[in-house]
Design brief:
Blueprint: H1 13-20, H2 26-39, H3 43-48, H4 59-64, E1 74-78, H5 84-92, E2 98-103, H6 106-114, E3 122-125, E4 139-145, H7 154-164, E5 165-176, H8 185-199, H9 216-226, E6 231-243, H10 245-253, H11 264-280, E7 287-299
Parallel strand pairs: 1-2, 1-4, 2-3, 4-5
Antiparallel strand pairs: 5-7, 6-7
Helix pairs in contact: 1-2, 8-11, 10-11
S-adenosylmethionine (SAM) binds next to helix 2 and helix 3.
């Protein structure tokens, strides 16, 4: 993602509190996410769709694999963003399947709606914490791709998902994996965070969302508490992509929420640092980005 716009450092209430060493609340988080998604609408899919596991599957496809097309009909993508996953659902499943998308951000939903000119997907602008307009036991599948990590309070979201799922329904999510589990990922993370910390020294001490979602162990404990008597499987996956160093540096910088708070000028400096790193670590002119993720699958019994 090449940013030509002349943005200043992002100044949300969440950032202000982090800067002052205070603890942001859910409203600060929501304000922060809205500003980022209004600036960089659709940024997640840019790299997520190109990073694949050894079987050639990206993280969206890892979620699709958890659907049983013959018994599951109603599929909700929670925090659907620009609608890439729903587009894959439409390609893979038949017209019998009913697709729904929820997101809190208008600009993301605008991009998502453009993908479906026939208007055959039900989109809702809503917070995942408040889906009271959706009926109990009305969904066979609930997806949440790269968004559960951003949600706080997350327990309200998980209880809502449990309420909406039918019996034998499936909740499948992609969340951040262990920083140490993918080769080179921690180094990239550190280049980005160390640079951002020069602008906002406390950045990273507190992360976006509920920290329990970010580790396999604490996520498992949290999910077990809410979805007691359900089958819970969390599996780590490594997703990789190869590109020319300068292209990869742009793609990777554009994937981290931390980089997206920088001014255009500082963002360009960060991209050049990443380009240097990837140039040093390239073979035959190509470099690799390895992304660790956890796939959570909950089968409601
Ligand atoms: C990293 S993007 C992922 C978008 C999409 N799922 C994808 O992977 O392409 C996170 C999305 O979650 C949405 N989001 C974050 N918190 C939310 C909440 N509490 N309720 C609804 N949407 C939320 C944001 O607006 C954004 O579109």
């Amino acid at each position: 993602m090449l940013f030509k716009t002349n943005y200043k450092n992002l100044n949300s209430s969440w950032i202000k509190k982090i800067y002052l060493g205070e603890t942001p609340n859910g409203k600060d988080l929501s304000d922060h996410l809205h500003i980022i998604h209004n600036r960089y609408t659709g940024f997640t899919e840019e790299i997520a769709k190109t990073c694949c596991d050894l079987n050639g599957k990206n993280s969206y496809e890892l979620l699709l694999d958890t659907v049983n097309p013959s018994s599951h009909r109603d599929i909700l993508d929670l925090a659907c963003g620009s609608g890439f996953l729903l587009e894959l659902c439409k390609k893979r499943f038949s017209s019998k399947h009913r697709l729904f998308g929820v997101d809190m951000n208008d600009n993301e939903l605008k991009l998502a709606r453009i993908r479906f000119p026939k208007n055959d997907i039900n989109f809702y602008k809503a917070n995942a914490q408040d889906l009271s307009f959706m009926k109990d036991s009305s969904k066979d599948v609930i997806f949440c791709h790269w968004a559960l990590t951003l949600m706080d309070p997350v327990v309200t979201v998980l209880k809502t998902i449990k309420r909406l799922l039918k019996k034998q329904g499936v909740f499948s999510a992609i969340v951040d994996g262990d920083l140490n589990s993918a080769e080179g990922y921690l180094e990239i993370h550190n280049i980005i965070y160390q640079y951002v910390q020069k602008k906002i020294p406390n950045y990273g001490l507190l992360e976006l969302g509920d920290p329990r979602v970010r580790s396999l162990k604490s996520l498992n404990k949290l999910i077990k508490k809410i979805f007691s008597n359900s089958e819970i499987i969390i599996t780590p996956h490594i997703l990789s992509c190869r590109q020319k160093p300068s292209i990869l540096a742009n793609q990777v910088a554009g994937f981290f929420y931390a980089s997206l708070i920088l001014s255009s000028k500082h963002y360009a400096i960060l991209v050049s640092k990443l380009t240097d790193y990837y140039t040093k670590n390239s073979t035959d002119g190509l470099s690799e980005f390895n992304l660790p993720v956890n796939r959570l699958v909950v089968k409601k019994t």
